Amino acid sequence: MSEMDFQHISVLLNECIEQLNIKPDGIYIDGTAGGAGHSSEIAKRLTTGKLIALDKDPDAIKTATERLAKYPCAEVIRSDFAEIPAVLDRLGIEKADGVLLDLGVSSHQLDAAERGFSYHNEAPLDMRMSQEGTSAYDIVNNASGAQLAKILYDYGEEKFTPRIVNAIVDARAVKPIETTTELAEIVKNAYPAAARRGGGHPARQTFQALRIATNGELDRLAEALDRVFDRLAPGGRFAIITFHSLEDRMVKRAFAEYTKGCTCPPEFPVCVCGKTPRGKLTTRKPIEPTKEELEYNHRSRSAKLRVIEKL
User: Fold this and answer.
1) Of 253, 242, 247, which Cα lies nearest the Cα of 304?
2) Which of 14, 40, 209, 245 would suit a FRET pair with 145, their CA atoms being 20 to 30 Å apart?
């Protein structure tokens, strides 16, 4: 794969850079480097500072390494963003001045048909961002009906879960479900005819659910939310772009928790809990793409950027 093959338009690029409030001598982490769009913009604003660009996808690492080669301040490391504290420990760095996570699937991962993320192209049912471990094929063909139902309900919020699960279980009893288009067709046929006529592709939520399950995305995010904020320097910022309501709710709740102060009952004359807010939100509402961005980058349509500053 050449560098030019990894196409990805960075979502909310200007907004992220502005919100990270970059200091030329600061330490910044892009936990989801992808095609290095956000990383490049951070790197070009640093003088004596350092950028650590992480990704668990080998294709992304190759591309980011090539694209960031001209910035001496940048270091590219293959790692999951949940491992940011371990990476900082290895590098002997105590605190970071800014961390960015873009939780979307990169355009490259969606467009490289063989990666199996898309229901539009025929490909092996894979969906592994790290290209190792359990694949979507393993889950679809080996998980119990109850496990599949939990995945589709929890991660896809799919209201026709029972019908879809029954159809998958029936189909795999005959032969394994091997490709993306096979699965998409099974899901489509399981949908009631009336529901099929409205909205997007019937397989959208099933594919989202399987992708999240295959990559343990929400577990990784929960770990990162717990650990990364602690490694910010005072005034440091944690910026996260989410693409669906499950992630956004998790980020919103965690950030709300960090901004909470005293939890004593209102009738107490003085505070005895000693709790003070650990962070403050930089904007009251999440930042969403502009009309212009939506026109040239339709994949940004569900993006929300939330940012918290450590006090």
Assistant:
1) 242
2) 245
